[in-house]
């Protein structure tokens, strides 16, 4: 038994059973599905939802020849703490009690960039590390924080435990960031503060800046959004639609795809040096194991569904809505979560909205309506700030599967020359390309599009 098998077997016996989402894959891989032989169904993925170039860019990432030259590694110090204002920790989440952020300090005074991860992303994922390397090489202090949709953030930093509300998530992120800044190593001198976020983290960063008008504002100067959604709910429903088209919506179809993926990933995991079952590992596995657009679509849809499982489970537990978690007897350490996870994997985001999110927030905001919940969980909430503020920037791609043509047009109209749209790249598929990094750094300096015009 090699060290990877040992690690996963140990996880399956202990903390693996207290997680969700990607841990569902880890548990299954540890079990080693020897009977998995089913193949993915042949499906038609419509061009109005995704394109072949967008799918492949999302899975494969940048061409090696186009990658920016960055330091191979940047040292980062982990800061772990319980955020003041978070809710009591459920027993099942004992291992997520403290928030984990990461800080890389320049040797002298420097501006600091906060990096906010995308949906389901932790504070030290592959995408976060890539951005850390680029920012640190350009002379910035770098503080990386997890997405407010991750179990760790929902447990250790959220004041509600019900993630996905842009306004509430911004307030929770602001509090967590402020307390992180208070814990920076003694002697750290910060001369300016900026924020970058990718995917949902981009929208989170922009909302933090736009609504940063409390008695103790963070004072974020510039924000760069990388492949952000416009409407959170519209983007996630696009992924749910992709899931149905690529995998199916009945439990038998989902089981067949899961069993096939388990077998392939189990073999690949033991051949690699992978440590975490995260988005980068799944896309890397898809690039090696899959070949058709239909299979790539299924892998992308599954990645988003795993993040939704985490969000749904935690929200149901904290809100006591009783969809899959018995509010009278919530799971405890040592309890199996297999039935909960099997039930959640077939539930789309609309179920989370209808059964958990809307009941919770409408009770907390009695004068609101469901329509307002949807409307205000969009960048249109801060449209005036985005349109008038000179320090909001965005990078996007024309073939990103999370965005419709009308939404991309809205971003172009709202941001004007402060957005660059690359012809291809899918969702974050050009992150780390030479041009993307150069443009991002020019935006952070407040010299966009002047630097771009001068360089090209």
Core attributes:
Rossmann fold; 456 residues; 8-stranded mixed beta sheet; disordered N terminus
Structure description:
By secondary structure, the chain is an alpha/beta fold. It has two domains: 3-61 and 240-364, no CATH class; 64-233 and 391-448, Alpha/Beta hydrolase fold, catalytic domain (Rossmann fold). It has 18 helices and eight strands. The longest helix is centred in the last third of the chain and has 27 residues, at 293-319. The chain is globular. The model is unreliable at 1-20 and 23-47 (pLDDT under 50).
* Main beta-sheet annotation: 8 strands, mixed
Total beta strands: 8
Strand order of the largest sheet: 1-2-4-3-5-6-7-8
- What is the mean predicted local confidence, pLDDT? 84
* Distance between the amino and carboxyl termini: 54 Å
Sequence of secondary-structure elements: HHHEEEHEHHEHEHHHHHHHHEHEHH
Please write the CATH class name of the largest domain: Alpha Beta
Structural class category: alpha/beta
How many separate domains? Answer: 2
Indicate the CATH topology of the largest domain: Rossmann fold
Report the uncertain regions.
1-20, 23-47
CATH superfamily placement of the largest domain: Alpha/Beta hydrolase fold, catalytic domain
Radius of gyration (Å): 21 Å
Summarize the amount of helix as a percent range. Answer: 40-55%
CATH structural architecture of the largest domain: 3-Layer(aba) Sandwich
- Our estimate of the beta-strand percent is 5-15%
Shape: globular
- Count of helices? 18
């Amino acid at each position: 038994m090699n060290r990877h098998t040992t690690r996963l077997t140990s996880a399956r016996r202990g903390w693996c059973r207290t997680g969700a989402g990607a841990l569902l894959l880890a548990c299954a891989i540890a079990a080693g599905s020897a009977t998995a032989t089913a193949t993915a169904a042949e499906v038609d993925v419509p061009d109005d939802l995704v394109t072949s170039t967008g799918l492949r860019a999302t899975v494969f990432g940048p061409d090696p020849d186009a990658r920016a030259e960055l330091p191979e590694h940047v040292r980062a110090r982990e800061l772990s703490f319980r955020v003041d204002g978070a809710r009591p920790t459920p027993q099942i989440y004992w291992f997520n009690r403290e928030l984990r952020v990461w800080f890389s300090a320049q040797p002298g005074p420097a501006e600091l960039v906060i990096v906010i991860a995308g949906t389901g992303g932790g504070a030290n994922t592959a995408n976060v590390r890539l951005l850390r390397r680029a920012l640190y090489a350009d002379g910035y202090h770098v503080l990386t924080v997890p997405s407010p949709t991750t179990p760790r953030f929902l447990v250790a930093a959220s004041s509600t435990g019900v993630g996905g509300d842009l306004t509430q998530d911004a307030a929770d992120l602001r509090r967590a960031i402020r307390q992180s800044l208070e814990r920076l190593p003694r002697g750290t001198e910060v001369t300016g503060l900026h924020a970058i976020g990718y995917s949902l983290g981009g929208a989170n960063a922009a909302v933090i800046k736009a609504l940063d008008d409390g008695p103790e504002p963070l004072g974020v100067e510039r924000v760069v959004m990388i492949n952000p959604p416009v409407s959170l709910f519209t983007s996630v429903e696009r992924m749910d639609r992709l899931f149905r088209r690529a995998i199916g919506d009945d439990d038998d179809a989902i089981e067949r795809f899961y069993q096939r993926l388990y077998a392939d990933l189990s073999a690949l995991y033991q051949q690699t040096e992978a440590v975490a079952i995260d988005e980068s590992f799944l896309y890397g596995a898809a690039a090696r194991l899959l070949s058709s657009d239909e299979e790539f679509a299924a892998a992308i849809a599954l990645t988003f569904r795993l993040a939704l499982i985490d969000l749904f489970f935690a929200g149901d537990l904290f809100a006591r809505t009783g969809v899959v978690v018995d509010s009278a007897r919530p799971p405890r350490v040592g309890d199996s979560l297999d039935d909960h996870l099997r039930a959640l994997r077939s539930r789309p985001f609309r179920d989370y909205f209808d059964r958990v999110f809307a009941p919770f927030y409408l009770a907390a905001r009695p004068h609101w309506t469901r329509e307002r919940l949807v409307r205000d969980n969009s960048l249109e909430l801060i449209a005036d700030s985005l349109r008038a503020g000179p320090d909001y920037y965005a990078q996007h791609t024309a073939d990103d599967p999370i965005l419709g043509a009308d939404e991309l047009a809205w971003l172009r109209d709202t941001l004007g020359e402060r957005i660059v749209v690359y012809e291809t790249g899918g969702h974050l598929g050009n992150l780390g390309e030479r041009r993307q990094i150069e443009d991002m750094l020019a935006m952070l300096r407040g010299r966009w599009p002047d630097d771009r015009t001068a360089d090209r």
